[in-house]
Amino acid sequence: MTEHRPRGLHGQTVEALASRILSDEWGEGTVLDLPALREELDISLTALREALKVLAAKGMIDARQKRGTFVQPREKWNMLDADVMRWQTAAADDPGLLDELTEVRAVVEPAAARIAAERASDEDLESLREALADMAAAGDDAEASVQADLAFHRRLMTATHNNFLMRMERIIAIGLAERDKLVHGASAAEDPVPSHRKVFDAIVAGDPTAAEQAMLALVTKSRDDLEKAQRKPARG
Asked: CB neighbours of 43 closer than 8 A, spacing ≥ 6?
């Protein structure tokens, strides 16, 4: 389902069960046969139930007397849960998911840049500067460029010093990582440094309006690049 490799039997069981739900092997309303599933996975019933508790907490399954344990409709899932987001972006064939994540970025990140321009500490600015330098040093190394891009956006959210926005960082990062993979796979990516530098310079200057506008322009360009990549076959 994904390149992420969970540690331990518990994590592997959670991922295996989630994969079946995401692939629609278990569609909405499917009632799970726990004894048969326990035997198939060769785990104890306790271990299986612990894994199912994780998925229940994420809204993916539910358990009711007389009905048993069953798969919930997607509208019941906790879409802001980082695991649910990661599983969906890794498994989904629907490009609309990335489109929705881009819409979230367009709402959240410009506001975060505005706040960061007002609150960023010297340590925050140095951290953003390092991410920008890594981005410039990455050159044509797509993986290094993606990691530097993720670091910049994570550190910007941290620079808001808003606990809710800092929690949103994980969601933004997952969507951004999948977007970067798709864009880099479809064509040679443009130099990301100038657009990110505009955001950084506005934050350093303590100019909230300029920071917000620069981030909005960056996210808009990101959306345009994603739309182009979705229309192109991957390079190979």
From this structure: 9, 13
